[in-house]
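Page 42, continued from yesterday. The earlier attempt failed because a stray header line got pasted into the input along with the sequence. Redoing it now with the clean sequence only.
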Amino acid sequence: MKYSFHWLTLVVGFILAVCLRNPTCAAQTRPADDVEQRVDRLLSQLTLTEKLGILGGTKNMFTIGVPRLGIPSLKMADGPLGTRTDGSSTAFPAGAALAATWDVQLADHEGICLGRNARSRGDHILLGPAMNIYREPQNGRNFEYFGEDPFLAGQIAAAYVRGVQSQSVAACVKHFVCNNQETQRDTIDAIVDERTLREIYLPAFEAAVKQGHARAVMAAYNQVNGSHMSANDFLLNDVLKDQWKFDGVVMSDWGATHDTLAAASAGLDLEMPSGQYFNPAAIWPLMQSGKISQATIDEKIRRLLRLMIQMGWMDHPQIDPSIPRDDAQSDDTALAVAQEGMVLLKNQGNLLPLDWGKIHSLVLVGPEAGVYVHGGGSSEVKPLHPTTIMDSLWLMAPSGVHITQVDFHDPLDEKMTELARGSKFEAPGLQAEFFDNMNLSGAPALKRVDSAINFNWHEALPAKEITSHAFSARWSGTIRPQASGEYTFAVRSDDGSRIVLDGKTIVDDWSDHAAHTRAAVVNLKAGRQYDLKVEYYNSVGVASIQFGWQISPPVLSPSDRAAIAGADAVIACVGPHESEGEDRSYGLPLRQEELLEAVSAVNPKTIVVLSSGGNVAMSPWIDHVPALLDAWYGGQDGGLAVATILFGEFNPSGRLPDTFEKKWEDAPAYGNYPGSDGKVNYAEGIYVGYRWFDKKGIEPRFCFGSGLSYTTFSVENLKIVDQGQGENRDVDVSVDVTNTGPRAGAEVVQLYVRPPAGGPDRAMQELKGFGRVDLEPGETHPVTMRLDARSFSYWDVNSHGWKITPGEYQIAVGRSSRDICVTGKVVWK
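This time it went through. Structure tokens are written below.
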């Protein structure tokens, strides 16, 4: 079986990693003066009309080329988790899973595979990695990102970028910067102080630029301190281009440009996906009036040409037919990331790993058990070889083991259409009103009676009376339940919708988003009449809405309970759906909490497999289940990875890249998310993640860096060696790591720097080094981590620079932020 060769393929893959680095990658070999000479020559041959024309994209994923000069039209591809532009591809695990590996070498190898996949399809620019900081668990794109800590995120991102670009493909790091929520992402203004920007939200991007040498950066949708990122002069020009010496291309996120002059002056080089504001008709008048200079335009063109020449795109075809589109090396790497990234968070009584020799009956429950689990939006990749947990266990199980899947009785998603058709209203139906605007205002353009709300207009208009895709609708009527009990009301829509019952809003999903389902459970009495109102709007593009209501079935039927009670173990597969364009709720959706409570009450050997991009509310069920595996979104081999971990084919070694709080009220962003009046105040400042929990003395549910194994380790023999002086001073910190348990496994060693007392307000400790080591039972291996002056610095707002407070710094090395094994000291004078 595929998993049996995991370690062999990984070892061979890592040995071949250097060999896979494409020798045609000019970015690695071409002298800088030669690049600039070619840029100057091409720049002098371009007409002004051609220059202004290539500053805007075309056909959604392309730039405009100039064939007479051999300047290619660049092809871009989403995204961070796979090349999704040209049909099916290798679907890699979520960014959160890659960060949870704490494996820089594996991140580099994933980048190589992504670059190869891009070359096989002729893609020039990969729109990734996505690397915003995990600020709050509800962010719909947390699954794409690399966790809460800027150092960890930066090291993973830099390695990913190096790998991608070794294949003559440019990585575009995104979303610069503070795109930490999807709620109102196009307009929200993140109010962030200077020090917090420098210490928390910018360092990962800085590492991707300085260490990874990223060739492209994507400006985010949101505003920061009053300016949209596509027109943020301080962050794009001062910080990115001047201070960090970034010489690549700054492009906008898709549709994130709002003004020609502001964006052109602030450092945006390329507007995507089209030149709505960057085009000859918009720019030429501003040049004539002197508001935009020829030098400004030439600098943007220079950056685009430099990128093309550095990457070798003018010297060889970008498509490489020698690389298979279905790449076995990518498959192996996707499985490796999934396995290394999954975090075993709870294993009471050593329930895991399960033993096939002792398992006769196994039951799977939950909505994620029999499906390929993934996030949504521009990271969603159609996988070449998807696996599910159910299918993978069937493949692994010896004969005689009975495996069953209990249906999760919640029809709200896949059966939404049936529910919509079956909902009963008082005759003759619902009064429908359609408006030729998005806000239900004015006189309706159309009135009619609808017997059901079950519409999928796609990109067509709902009726001839509606002239704009920006329209809204309201359905009003009454319902009369035949039996008393709990009823589920559900609406699935693209974009906004809400349900009002007897004057009370029970579902409020009034925002732009892709199609998804929202539901509420309400107690109703038989024979009573209830007033119902369903409202909807569409902003642009695809439009759809389905609504239904029904008495809520029991989460488990009597036969389900019997099957679960008789099983040797139960695997409950749950998780929220996360996607670009929307934030999620903190709790598990669609009765999943109720399911976990019911299952664990029937069978105490319940193992929860959680698929998400971060923490969820666990209080209703965590104390009733003995085992919890955080599987993130595991990519195309996520199901197989879960199965190999549950049955001990692979020893779990992932460590949390985030702090999981016990309740939302404990989180640093609580009270300052999602914001109000168009602004979100980052009032927690530098105290994000474990920094907050340390400072406030709050006990998290699972701390940053934590994770269990099927073996045990010791970390000892701390050694600290100084080299150099002042800003050139390096400190090498080494420890010996020993596998003291019965199985081969991997340990992640983490180094935290603790500042001296009495100085400026600083975090109690900060991650500044880490190392991952694989060990056989009884084996010992040294791990060395290097610290530089930046490792001891904080951002001084008076001098606007990095500063070291003189004094004694504690070096704390351990297995998590709250499991420190050895300490030492370093003195700065």
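Notes: The first helix runs from residue 6 to 20.
Reminder to self: strip header lines before submitting.
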